[in-house]
Amino acid sequence: MGLDGKVVVVTGGTRGVGAGIARTFVEAGADVVVCARRPPEVPLPGAEFRALDLRDPEAVQAFFAALPRLDVLVNNAGGTPYRRLTDADAVRHARVIELNLVAPLTASLAAYEHLKRVRGSVVMIGSVSGGRPSPGSAAYGAAKAGLESLARSMAVEWAPEVRVNTLVVGMVRTEQSHLHYGGEDGIAGVSRTVPLGRLAEPSDIGAAAAFLASDAAAYISGASLLVHGGGERPVFLDAATVNKEART
After folding, report:
1. Cα separation of 187 and 183, whole Å?
2. Residue 217 in 3-state DSSP?
3. How far apart are CA 108 and CA 9, in angstroms?
4. In the prediction, which pLDDT does 189 show?
5. Is the pLDDT of residue 172 over 80?
6. Residue 138: which H helix or E strand, with range?
7. Sign of the C-alpha dihedral, residues 49, 51, 57, 59?
8. Containing H/E element for 115?
9. Is 71:7 a contact under the CB 8 Å cutoff?
10. What is the mean pLDDT of the chain?
């Protein structure tokens, strides 16, 4: 993929999807730096960890200024607990938007001069939550919708020096899957709603991110790549009373 020796920063790359992305880039021969507020419980061989609070603009600017080179930025850091809108005040919801939308913008701006110099690439890690109702994570869904829009605008403003794309990620099996889907029975039940019959593995997301960052995607910018196993089966099909035999 032409990633050998490239310098890659993966935000939130210490666990889950971020660790899977970082591992894929390491295996592709890249020099990988992962950043998060806390170090990983299990260090990733071949990747360097640096502590960074992405919601601190001055710290983010200093972090990227200290890098001698940067070829790829993967804006992966994000997430949210399950929280219905009326169960929290506006400040808590705003912090979710800050982490999932403002922080990627802050990091991208801080990385821009490096990326422009080498004709580099930004990969945003979006979510299917940005394109459908997200009860219990409304602020997160709104932020991910904004992230996808931001990436498209960045791709136009920063062309031709910097390519910017988004991975629109579906459900992924990580060490925290039980918090979203329950135990093995819950994960199995949710997996049956996916056309491909399983949740994604972090390595699936890593492979897609590496592709978008690579020379194989040299003419792809401003794109949103769906990585969701075929999407979600429409709920109305199970409620309809006609054609049940054909559907099953």
Report:
1. 6
2. helix
3. 11
4. 86
5. yes
6. helix 138-157
7. negative
8. helix 103-118
9. yes
10. 94
Cα–Cα distance for residue pair 209/125, rounded to 1 Å: 8
- pTM for this prediction: 0.93
Cβ(205)–Cβ(125) below 8 Å? yes
Burial class (CB in 10 A: 0-12, 13-18, 19+), 61: middle
Amino acid at 142: A
Q: Note the pLDDT of residue 188.
A: 86
User: Which has more pLDDT, 239 or 77?
Assistant: 77
Q: Is-contact 210 22, C-beta < 8 A?
A: no
Q: What is the pLDDT of residues 205-226, one digit of tens each?
A: 999 999 999 999 999 999 999 9
Q: Residue 94 CB: number of other CB atoms within 10 A?
A: 12
* 13: pLDDT strictly greater than 90: yes
Q: Hey, how many other C-beta atoms are within 10 angstroms of the C-beta on 90? A: 9
Measured in whole angstroms, the distance separating CA 91 from the mean position of its chain's CA atoms is: 23
Place of tokens 């949710």: 190
Distances (CA, A) of 132 to 51, 64, 81, 196: 33, 34, 18, 20
CA distances from residue 112 to 64, 82, 85, 123 in whole angstroms, order as listed: 9, 33, 35, 13
* Cα 178-10-164 angle, rounded to 5 deg: 110
* Beta partners for residue 89, in sequence order: none
